[in-house]
Amino acid sequence: MNVDIHLSWKPYLEEEFSKPYFKDLVDFVKIEYQNNVCFPPGKKIFNAFNHCHFNDVKVVIIGQDPYHGLRQANGLCFSVNDEISHPPSLINIFKEIENDLGVPYPESGNLLRWAEQGVMLLNATLTVRAHHAGSHQKRGWETFTDAVIKIISMNKTNIVFLLWGGYAKQKAKLIDEKKHHILVSGHPSPLSANRGYWFGNKHFSQTNDILRNLNIPEIKW
């Protein structure tokens, strides 16, 4: 696995890349991709970094694991490739945007358009074996992505962090809440959303309100 990551991130992450855990992680991922079908495709593992450059980060959304179905994962949390059916959580995200902002439900579930506006779509684990949810957890990815969250928190100001569900909320301890804006709610998965923990959180309008007050261009959700 080559660490094919945009140059803007390298000064901040080079130290992580040199640590023993990361070398072990690279070895594990290489073997997994050689011996099994894994997602996302190798060239898209660091898509979140390659389409949202360090200096452009305005918003961070934290997911847990890539989709493990065929052709779904594209290296951006909650996002699927064009022409792929929208998974339940993504459907509920788009429904909330529709209710919150009046933005029509989109045809494509590819969130690349968000990443290119400064939304860091970061999964805690960046790879997965096909049809085996969570199969690459606790191999080092979480150590790496926790470091990424800390680096963003330390080196930037006024980032909006959207923490959806119990797993993402645990990441709040990595963020300096005096420098940044943290919005929390239930997860958009049907289990949480249907219990009333997701719909009506208005995170998308709240995010844009924060950005507007800082004279930062809003996100076109």
TrEMBL record:
EC number: 3.2.2.27
Catalytic reaction(s) noted: Hydrolyzes single-stranded DNA or mismatched double-stranded DNA and polynucleotides, releasing free uracil
Gene3D superfamilies: Uracil-DNA glycosylase-like domain
InterPro entries: UDG_fam1 (IPR002043), Ura-DNA_Glyclase_AS (IPR018085), Uracil-DNA_glycosylase-like (IPR005122), Uracil-DNA_glycosylase-like_sf (IPR036895)
One of the GO biological process terms: base-excision repair, AP site formation via deaminated base removal
Localisation: Cytoplasm
Protein name: Uracil-DNA glycosylase
Key words, A-Z: Cytoplasm, DNA damage, DNA repair, Hydrolase
Role this protein plays: Excises uracil residues from the DNA which can arise as a result of misincorporation of dUMP residues by DNA polymerase or due to deamination of cytosine.
Enzyme active site: 65 (proton acceptor)
Protein family: Belongs to the uracil-DNA glycosylase (UDG) superfamily. UNG family.
Entry's Gene Ontology cellular component terms: cytoplasm
Native species: Seonamhaeicola aphaedonensis
Classification via SMART domains: UDG, UreE_C
